[in-house]
């Protein structure tokens, strides 16, 4: 006679289901999970970062309003910056960076602090302002790039009669993901100014470097200020020689040839009217600041119309192409420097222009 308690035979489906649920429960109780329950790796990136655009005509009045209701000079961690919050992310403008527009009124100072996230400033509007970086007061005029490398003391001073708005990019989301945020206020509020535009003196001409500068090789560029006048001249001469729909230069560390900031790739792309740029995609999200000009970009099939002062985002591996109605300068910050250091960077060109399937409108 067959034993009713014999369990050596194949399990019935309902028994297996109960056993599976019991196993999953037992794993969860021990802070474990089965890898078979996770989604598989995708064939290519599926970014949570969304293509998005913020318009200058919306931002500028809000920045001005913040200038009247938000104070900046009380605590070292306080900055009057309007952060661009990507609707696809809980934190960040892209997966790696926060972008922001910072507003400093005439006569104001933003006190000194330092932090492990690195940042850059790109001036959009205003002058007679300097950012002091480790004692070097770097003058800020439209189109200039100022570095505030990680753990460098920095404060801001508006000594003019007009407000200034500049674009901040900070690798805060990247460093936060690595759980490596450190921050310190300067004990004296503002740091002592040693000199003005000191870092530029050692790099006055192509291929020439003041000899004592060789001692200052570090993780970031010893050059802290990149004037727009030099970028403009370089782009113009490159395009005069080669032509094409666009030309791009990268801001480099003049000692090592690496990126100006280890975690950031900063570029300026000049786009010329006539024909659209070749559609391309690359790993890593990018933030674009329209410094001059106007035009459209097709990002993943959606058309974004932009003009000076607008900011837009191209997520990782989403194709992008530009078409301008006038000569336009796009300042771009991305994380290619990080991906290349980790041997993860990829890029590709598309064979044909993207088909436009929609036009961007804010929800
Ligand atoms: Fe800061």
Automatic annotation (TrEMBL):
<protein>
    <submittedName>
        <fullName>Gentisate 1,2-dioxygenase</fullName>
    </submittedName>
</protein>
<keyword id="KW-0223">Dioxygenase</keyword>
<feature type="domain" description="Cupin type-2">
    <location>
        <begin position="102"/>
        <end position="168"/>
    </location>
</feature>
<keyword id="KW-0560">Oxidoreductase</keyword>
<dbReference type="InterPro" id="IPR047183">
    <property type="entry name" value="GDO-like"/>
</dbReference>
<dbReference type="InterPro" id="IPR011051">
    <property type="entry name" value="RmlC_Cupin_sf"/>
</dbReference>
<dbReference type="InterPro" id="IPR013096">
    <property type="entry name" value="Cupin_2"/>
</dbReference>
<dbReference type="Pfam" id="PF07883">
    <property type="entry name" value="Cupin_2"/>
</dbReference>
<dbReference type="InterPro" id="IPR014710">
    <property type="entry name" value="RmlC-like_jellyroll"/>
</dbReference>
